[in-house]
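Researcher: Go.
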Amino acid sequence: MNQTQTGAAVLINVDDHEATRYVRKRVLEKAGFQVHDAENGTAALRLVDEKRPDLVLMDVHLPDIDGIEVTRRLKSHPRTAAVLVLQISASAITAPQATAALNTGADGYLVEPVDPDVLVATVRSLLRLRAVERALNNVNQELADKNVELTRVNQALRRSNEDLERFAYIGSHDLQEPLRNITTHIQLLDRLSGDRFSESERQLFAVIENGALRMSTLISDVLAYSGIAQQQPSLQPTSLDDSLALALQDLSESVAAADANVTFEPLPSVMGDAAQLGRVFQNLIANSIKYATPGVPPCVHISAERESGGDVLVRVKDNGIGIGAEHLEKIFEPFKRLHGRDIPGNGIGLALCRRIIESHGGRIWVDSREGEGSTFLFTLRPAAQAVSHR
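Model: Structure:
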């Protein structure tokens, strides 16, 4: 809004009738506005260009250019398009005439005689609306600028993440070959050595071999973690019972060795990738076995239900050692291990579960207390069409 040093809005009062123009100017100046007079359309266009007013009071019938044409020219020029125009007429008082004026670009229309209070109130109302409009435009522009910057940052972050994932995948893949060579040759050396090495020396071989095997496992998990990030799952109607069966098949030796009792209820079908969801079940059940209460056979129960919002909520509940409240979110971070080297593992399993579930459009979390077991929960979208699996 163009204002003088005193803060008054600048108006241009256009009317070819001198007495009317004088009275209107006095009313507006008394109301606190700075007013410049113009007796015809040509003078009005010149003053608008010079003074850059906030609002023009425009008589419709002028001797050279009628007020509707002056308004059209003001609104069609980028420099003056934002100037408010309040058209006033004592003769063009029909609805079609008012409609024509407003359609040309006028922001308001009054019919003479105009009550002074109504005139001042109308001018102030138009100026308030313009102030709000400009403030909103400024906010929208700031938001647009922020969105452009956010898009740029997100693109840079995505490129960085893609580069990191690609580096992790390629680097991990290339590390597997020398590890296999180390393991193979240590085993070969142990077999060919006969009695040339003492028992303590053979134990050193075992330490080297176990270290190489642990490193190989870690690299395989990193490959799996980065691989999930690089591919979008193929979502199709999938039986959770089938995914769980795959997991239990892979875990059969671990379940038997731990004397674990894994029970489950009939599970629904969801939109998902059967192999990836099987890996989620495998990691969660293995996690329950790994963190079992000492001296107590692990018990794991899997169930599912339909939430009110429509998603499928899956629960994997165990009777293990539980998790402290301060660690409930941290356990899903890559390489996060709460018990150091006391319990085998590399801290990738739960991070992999989160990545898989989030890539399916769901979320995963845990409810747990120390000494009271844990319940891992995750959501998935239900299958578009039920799949018969039993």
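Model: The chain has three domains: 10-114, 159-230, 236-380.
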